[in-house]
Amino acid sequence: MIFEKIDKNNIPQHIAVIMDGNGRWAKKRGMRRESGHRAGRKSVKKIIESCVELGIKNLTLYAFSTENWNRPKIEINFLMQLLLLSLKDELKNLNKNNIKFKTIGDLYQLPKKIINYLEKVKSETKDNSKLTLTLALSYGSRNEIVNVVKELSDKVKNNIISSKNIDETVINDHLYTRNLPDVDLLIRTSGEKRISNFLLWQIAYSELYFTKKLWPDFRKKDLYKAIISYQNRERRFGKTSEQVK
Ligand code: FPP
What we know:
By secondary structure, the protein is of the alpha/beta class. 43% of the residues lie in helices and 15% in strands. The chain has eight helices and six strands, in the order βααβαβαβααββαα. Helix 1 packs across helix 2 (33-54), helix 2 (33-54) runs parallel beside helix 3 (73-96) and helix 3 (73-96) packs parallel to helix 4 (112-125). The protein starts with 13 loop residues before the first strand and ends with a helix. It binds farnesyl diphosphate (FPP).
């Protein structure tokens, strides 16, 4: 079985996923795009379950990008309703499985009802420690970096920090992801080989894994395959092969 092939001593600490292909999955079946998103929710559940089983500490899912606000209003509304429903359904499970829930992105753009519920789920799971599940919502990496620049320039102007002390750690500490480790493995489904404005700073040294599977078809064994591919790569971080050995 493929599960046995995973080296349990070399599990990625942080996996990020661009969940793509819900619309195409539905279209192939002659269904509306919304059915694809509904089916995608099942994959989300399975992958979270799998991360808990494998002892992965951080899972970050790209659920809604800043660019997704340009989709038809009816689809945006559906995605917001699905998010609210999922949060309501899953709160108990998050606590049962010791999962801490977080978000990254410009939440203020979301409907108030959803912002309130997101805050409730975050606060009621904040002491959990097995897995940190982060949803990227109304998230765009360039926008995140612009916000860091604004915040740091205000701090320089007000003499809170000196520009000569700005380094990579300071920038890291001002990103939405400030308390998360760097991404080890980035997965994108549906055959597209792009990053689409997701975690540009944080994936500097990530291993990238692309699969043709559409997100609603992505199951535990597909995650195992991605992890095995990650484990077969040599992460050199700019060093030579001999140095890392
Ligand atoms: C990309 O597929 C998917 C999204 C924009 C939304 C992600 C939402 C889910 C996986 C639903 C459940 C998730 C939560 C967190 C409740 P696409 O619509 O861009 O697909 P396409 O490229 O085939 O059109």
